[in-house]
Design a protein that fits this description.
Order of helices and strands of chain A: HHHEHEHEHEHEEHEHEHHHHEHHEEH
CATH class of one domain in chain A: Alpha Beta
Largest sheet of chain A: 11 strands, mixed
Radius of gyration of chain B: 30 Å
Number of helices of chain A: 16
Helix content of chain B: 40-55%
Structural class of chain A: alpha/beta
Oligomer: heterodimer
Number of strands of chain B: 16
Helix content of chain A: 25-40%
Largest sheet of chain B: 9 strands, mixed
CATH architecture of one domain in chain A: Alpha-Beta Complex
CATH superfamily of one domain in chain A: Amidase signature (AS) domain
Distance between the termini of chain A: 32 Å
Number of strands of chain A: 11
Radius of gyration of chain A: 21 Å
Shape of chain A: globular
Distance between the termini of chain B: 73 Å
């Protein structure tokens, strides 16, 4: 049975709609895999076995009745637990929302369901998506399926681990500073952060509104394209949603790009990058050169201010976005408050973990009278400079290639005592969010100790269609994506973390 | 009090902040119905409740209404405007920030010419007007240790209008408020029902006192949340006296700094310092990343301007200058747009203005008042079942001396009781058409003279009572004729007979 859950989403969909596989069997296979693996990984916060099987039965009945299948008919999808669903809870891996049930579905959830997808569960994340290792979850960390002593990356670590381990066909994550691409890199899968505004944010619990985007995590480029096809497009409920129809990401996916110019930013190599990571990325670039791409050096001089600007803008917006969790209307409420102030203070002190509290304090400080100009306004100026850097670079090249993460997956606990070191995990990914451009990770090798390495592609706004073709061109000629982590035979480990 | 005799010379400066709830179909940033009232928390949706993951979307109708008011107040409409978050924690504010406009208001500087009602007129400069969302309400009563939250009002579009301190006294402050209410009602952006909080006023008051050769300002007091014009006038009046006495108690003390916030106790008729917050407010304004800046094109502004009706102030000007109405009549006619519209329609149908206004402000106003009292709700004149065409026809009958003013009241009452009747036919059927028959008139004159020897005697013998007696006898003749006699003919024949005798 295990093979069923390891098919790509496209293959599975084709076999289900072609009648070779029953949707119910595919769903059962996924839940068997979850039962066997997830005690070791803790990729999921919650799973929906019953509703998924009911949905699968309907897919099978509809097929038998000759109804037209959706793009994701019968495909088991996991979604990050900061995306609102009317079924189950939407916890954001926070004690604050541990019991929160949303009365509405996020736009992406509606779109998935309309396309026939089966939502099998909601995946673990760093609390409110703040982190790079999924260790900041109030419900315990997620483990990397390649090595359960290692982190899966974050904040979409649960979605990445579940996808890599075959506990779903593909997943949705959210990316504010690298939260799709970095865990995709650390778990050896494809992850795409779309152009800001391409996918509706309605129903994504906001972390930093001007940076957040929902995107796919998948085992193949074609699967990522398929998910993007389903979730992209204008949504009148999101004012920042791009008002044009989205592209066709599927039809020309197999066609390699001609005369592509690939930019190599000098700022994205050098210090802090693992030798094995640097070497794998170099080899990938050489592949493109051999395929006829023109390799051009480009400069993104303001990259070095990216992390600093990000850690002003994102916490400022987060402090405001998270103000609503106050113990009054919903969510965690402290017992026996002395007065209103105490109700607020105690509920928030109990409901939020340390990293969330740290960022709320950072953001509140940055927006305070007397500091606004020095921090927030200045960060916005840096944002303009970073955007300008990319505009300039994309005059000289079509796409930029660089590492997604400077290192492979690190050990659990290795950085959790040092927030600044943790923040530097995002050094290659944050500028993409700051500029609003699309970026994706594709697997491009393994380290000597068997951990995945990722290549990051960055492109101009709304270049997803061509970027996916560029990624597919690489994937078609490599086998990295065919390697799968092996299920552990031992006892669950995450209950006694090292 | 120092000395009652030494009242100093002083000027009053009042600026006003007004919150107008816009009567849009849906709320400021979501499709939930903008109709509060009803069960607590029934006029809400996930956006109003500020649930995780929701996003705001600008209500175009609210923007258009705000632009309309801005144009009526001669404001410069911004070509581009943005939305900011104003952060503060309070249980009636679901997101713990309010979406407002900080440094790029939709409407910039403008002005309103406040017409002279009784006192002098004034030019009131408008500083700005911006859109924001309202908060909900807390219910403190009868719930023990708890307060309850009702979010029906949350998310209602509010237009906040801020004036410069150009109002020179309590009466002007009230007149300004009333005028603004008229404008909002004419434009259809608000029903202007004060008891329901459709408009809330916050005057900022201080005095400039002439002391030892220079003008010394008293500290500004802001009076929060007044929702009647009477309260505006009384609170301003009280506050002026309070600041004056406070200053007079120690005129040479260094002036206290800063602005205080005061509440109005309507029962006691006093303003009271409101408990100051423990810490100074820092609203940490920043642009709302969930909303994009709004561009307002000149074409859009012109489309909106084209939909605007003629406002009360220019209407009054027109009535006074073109139709010769008094200021008071013009004001009365324009208090309700529906009445003013009815008036204009009747004029267009050929009504002589003088006769028409007598009908509208006379018998029509009286009947509307009676019906209001009987039905326990306001019945505007325009709701009476008499059309503009009927008013015009009736007014023309009076003007052509076909019926007397007295008879016109009877005809009007008949029309109101029998909708759709023709005024001329009614006058004829009721025998109310004027009689210009000298012989009939002479009979009525002789009857009146015979019946009133005292008045006749006074006319003939007492020069002091001559005019009064003539008036009395003329009235007696009209009464005998049941209002049908032609007053001019009555006058001629009556004087002839009295002088003959």
């Amino acid at each position: 049975m295990t093979i069923l859950n390891e098919l790509s989403a496209v293959e599975l969909r084709d076999r289900i709609t072609g009648g070779e596989i029953k949707s119910v069997d595919a769903a059962e296979a996924v839940f068997q895999a979850i039962a066997a693996w997830d005690p070791f990984l803790h990729a999921y916060n919650s799973t929906f076995r019953e509703s998924t099987l009911r949905g699968a039965e309907k897919i099978d009945r509809d097929r038998a009745a000759g109804k037209k299948p959706g793009l994701l008919s019968g495909v088991p999808i996991a979604i990050k637990d900061n995306i609102c669903t009317t079924f189950g809870t939407t916890t954001c891996s926070s004690k604050m929302l541990a019991d929160f049930r949303s009365p509405y579905n996020a736009s992406v959830v509606e779109k998935l369901q309309n396309a026939g997808a089966l939502i099998v569960g909601k995946t673990n994340l760093d609390e409110f998506a703040m982190g790079s290792s999924t260790e900041n979850s109030a419900f315990g960390p997620t483990h990397n399926p390649w090595n359960t002593r290692r982190v899966p990356g974050g904040s979409s670590g649960g979605s990445a681990a579940a996808t890599a381990a075959g506990l779903c066909s593909a997943a949705l994550g959210s990316d504010t500073g690298g939260s799709i691409r970095q865990p995709a890199s650390l778990c050896g899968i494809v992850g795409l952060k779309p152009t800001y505004g391409l996918v509706s944010r309605y129903g994504l619990v906001a972390f930093a509104s001007s940076l957040d985007q929902i995107g796919p995590l998948a085992r193949t480029v074609a699967d990522a394209a398929l998910l993007l096809q389903v979730i992209a497009g204008h949504d009148p409920r999101d004012s920042t949603s791009w008002p044009e129809p989205s592209d066709d990401y599927l039809s020309e996916l197999e066609k390699p790009l001609e005369e592509v110019r690939l930019g190599l930013p000098e700022e994205f190599t050098g210090e802090g990058v693992d030798a094995e990571v640097a070497s794998a990325v170099r080899t990938a670039v050489e592949f493109y050169r051999a395929q006829g791409a023109k390799i051009v050096p480009v400069s993104l001089p303001h990259t070095r201010y990216g992390i600093a600007a990000y850690y002003v803008i994102a916490p400022a917006e987060a402090a405001s976005n998270l103000a609503r969790y106050d113990g009054v209307h919903y969510g965690h409420r402290a017992a026996h408050p002395e007065d209103l102030y105490d109700l607020y203070a105690a509920s928030r002190a109990q409901g939020f973990g340390p990293e969330v509290q740290r960022r709320i304090m950072l953001g509140t400080y940055a927006l305070s009278a007397g500091y606004y100009d020095a921090y927030y306004l200045r960060a916005l100026k840096v944002r303009q400079l970073i955007k300008h850097d990319f505009d300039e670079a994309f005059q000289q090249c079509d796409f930029i290639a660089c590492p997604t993460s400077p290192t492979v997956a690190f050990e659990l606990g290795a950085k959790s005592g040092d927030p600044l070191r943790m923040y530097l995990c995002d050094v290659f990914t944050v500028t993409c969010n700051i500029a609003g451009i699309p970026g994706m990770n594709i697997p491009c090798g393994f380290s000597s100790d068997g951990l995945p390495i990722g290549l990051q592609l960055l492109g101009p706004i709304f270049s997803e269609r061509r970027m996916l073709r560029l990624a597919r061109q690489y994937e078609k000629n490599h086998d990295w994506h065919k390697r799968r982590p092996q299920p552990p035979a031992a006892e669950p480990r995450h209950k006694q973390p090292d | 009090m120092a000395s009652a005799a030494a009242l100093p010379q002083y000027k009053v400066l009042i600026g006003m902040e007004i919150h107008v709830q816009l009567a849009t179909r849906s709320k400021m940033f979501t499709g939930a119905a903008n109709g509060f009232g009803g069960e607590p928390n029934s006029q809400v949706d996930p956006v109003v409740l500020g649930l995780p993951g929701v996003l705001p979307v600008i209500n175009r109708q609210a923007v258009e209404m705000a632009i309309m008011v801005g144009l009526a107040l001669n404001c410069r409409i911004a070509a581009q405007t943005k939305w900011d978050r104003k952060s503060y924690y309070y249980p009636d504010l679901p997101k713990n920030y309010q979406i407002s406009q900080y440094d790029q208001p939709l409407c910039g500087a403008g002005q309103m010419e406040l017409p002279p009602a009784d006192g002098p007129g004034a030019t009131v400069r408008i500083r700005r007007a911006h859109l924001e969302e309202d908060a909900g309400k807390l219910l403190h009563e009868n719930h023990g240790a708890f307060s309850l939250v009702d979010l029906n009002r949350a998310g209602t579009p509010l237009l906040e209008i801020v004036t410069e301190p150009d109002l020179a006294g309590p009466e002007q402050a009230r007149l300004f408020g009333e005028e603004l209410r008229h404008i909002c009602r004419y434009l259809g952006v608000s029903l202007g029902i004060m008891q329901q909080g459709h408009m809330r006023f916050e005057p900022n008051i201080n005095l400039h006192i002439f002391h030892q050769g220079q003008w010394v300002p008293t500290p500004i007091a802001e009076i929060k949340n007044l929702n009647s014009f009477r309260a505006v006038e009384r609170a301003c009046g009280y506050e002026i006296q309070r600041q004056l006495s406070e200053w007079m108690a120690s005129p040479d003390a260094p002036p206290p700094r800063g602005k205080s916030t005061r509440g109005w106790d309507d029962d006691r008729g006093v303003t009271l310092v409101q408990r100051e917050k423990e810490e100074a407010h820092d609203y940490r304004y920043f642009p709302d990343p969930d909303l994009v800046p709004l561009r307002v094109t000149p074409e859009w502004i012109e489309q909106i301007r084209a939909r605007m009706v003629e406002l009360p102030i220019p209407r009054r000007e027109r009535y006074r200058k073109q139709l010769g109405l008094s200021a008071k009549e013009a004001f009365s006619l324009t208090e309700e747009k529906s009445l003013s519209d009815l008036f204009d329609q009747a004029i267009a149908a050929g009504a002589p203005p003088r006769r028409l206004i007598n009908l509208l402000l006379g018998p029509a106003a009286k009947l509307a008042n009676e019906r209001s009292a009987a039905q326990g709700r306001p019945v505007p004149i325009s709701d009476l079942p008499v059309s503009a065409g009927q008013y015009a026809a009736l007014a023309r009958l009076v003007d052509q001396n076909a019926i007397s003013a007295t008879a016109s009241v009877a005809v009007f009452e008949y029309l109101a009781a029998h909708p759709g009747s023709d005024p001329a036919q009614v006058a004829a059927q009721q025998g109310l058409l004027q009689v210009r028959d000298a012989a009939r008139t002479l009979q009525w004159v002789l009857q009146a003279i015979a019946a009133n020897p005292q008045a006749v005697g006074d006319y003939r013998n007492n020069p002091k009572k001559k005019q009064a007696s003539l008036g009395f006898l003329r009235g007696a003749v009209m009464k005998l004729s049941q209002g049908k006699a032609d007053p001019k003919m009555v006058g001629q024949i009556l004087e002839e007979k009295l002088n003959d005798g």
